[in-house]
Design brief:
214 residues; mainly alpha; two-stranded antiparallel sheet; 74% helix
């Protein structure tokens, strides 16, 4: 197994920043498919939906620029890329990052159960799609379905990487900090599902009240 000093971490960080920028067209394509499938996005419909996703894409782009130009955020992003590379290849990320890599691996494995819930989103989009317009809906549906499959494969790989890391963490022996409240909630399927169900019920009740009083 390779160790941290054998890795060109500067190159790893550059590739990470490049991948961040390459992901932007994918984000824009995803938003485009969402509007194409259903003719709306969130509370906006028609032209307003296209304007909304244009604004959201611009916000994502601005966020990337802020990270690039702000030294502190740029350093944090570089550390995140370094940790991600270390997890994927079981490398020692070096002092100061080992414990963070342990926590990230524990979290990745803890939320692995979400892989069974993620497909519900694309399935709902496809069920509510405008199938009376096959010329635009079918290509968008294929892209969404393909993206969902790709995401699930990626997710399972991250979970497996986390499992391997936690089984034998690279570097010297160390203790991992206990999980915080947010991590404990998100990594317990029953608790997280109860929370999501409560939010859904509250949303439905709010919509019902608004409909009755409107």
């Amino acid at each position: 197994m390779s160790t941290g000093p054998d890795v060109d971490w500067s190159s790893v960080e550059r590739r990470g920043r490049r991948d961040d920028w390459l992901a932007l067209p994918g984000v824009a394509l995803l938003f485009t498919c969402l509007v194409t499938l259903q003719g709306r996005w969130a509370v906006w419909e028609g032209a307003a939906a296209w304007v909304a996703i244009g604004v959201l894409t611009a916000i994502v782009l601005i966020g990337q620029l802020v990270v690039l130009l702000n030294p502190r955020l740029r350093a944090r992003s570089a550390e995140a890329h370094r940790i991600g590379h270390a997890l994927r290849h079981r490398l020692d990320p070096g002092p100061g990052l080992r414990e963070r890599a342990d926590v990230r691996a524990r979290y990745q494995m803890g939320v692995g159960w979400l892989v069974w819930i993620v497909p519900l989103g694309p399935a709902g989009l496809l069920l509510g799609a405008r199938w009376d317009r096959p010329g635009s809906t079918v290509p968008a549906a294929l892209l969404v379905a393909g993206g969902a499959v790709g995401f699930l494969v990626w997710w399972r790989r991250r979970v497996e990487e986390a499992r391997r890391w936690l089984a034998a963490p690279p570097g010297p022996p160390r203790e991992v900090s206990p999980p915080g409240l947010a991590e404990r909630w998100s990594t317990r399927p029953r608790t997280a599902l109860l929370a999501m169900t409560a939010v859904l019920v509250i949303g439905l009740l709010a919509g019902l009240v608004a409909g009755l009083t409107g």
